[in-house]
User: What shape does this take?
Amino acid sequence: MKKALRDNGLSLFFGLIFLLALVGQGLTGHALFNEKQIAAGLEEITLGQYLTSSGFAVDVSENWQSEYLQFLLYITATIWLVQKGSPESKELDQTGLESDEEQLVGEYSNQKSPAWAKASGWRRALFSNSLGMTMGLIFILSWLVQSIAGTSAYNEEQLKNFQQPVSWAEYLVSPEFWNRTLQNWQSEFLAVGSMVVLSIYLRQRGSPESKPVGSAHDDTGATG
Assistant: This one.
């Protein structure tokens, strides 16, 4: 058990704090929603009703889609783009998909290589791009949930204010949708860009996201 906890400590840690943050968001969001209901002279709702509401769904999904968009863009951009001095970048002369030998696929695979890395044709092509494709799929699905739940939440507000509800297509081109979307995207892009640049000049001893403390600022792709 101790070995399993050690070997999976990073995923367990982030899984736990994710669940705690999600529970906290649900509880505080429910309290805030009921405060607004009371202020508007409306009935309070239960926690269960809030957790299954379009308002909660859109708040969660709009954050998820921006996070997975960030990962999708970073994974694919770092194939071709480099940043001198950053541990988040490949070496300056290693841009592109790299050779089969470097990627340990096909005839260059070893005993521990996954079966689909040893295979040829569509299986190897699919496995070679499976991370980016999965991140892209999660992004699209969470974006779809955000847009559908957002339409419902927006129309609830419209009806409360005795205004005309809108269709899903109308909501997709509305300022409401793009304001909510872009405020999340810009923060994700800033965070990734900051990590790339700050890791050139700053260090965190022992972290694989940082260069070794004594590495030169222009060392690229080194991790410590």
Notes: The chain is about 65% helix and 0% strand. Residues 1-52 form one domain. The radius of gyration is 23 Å.
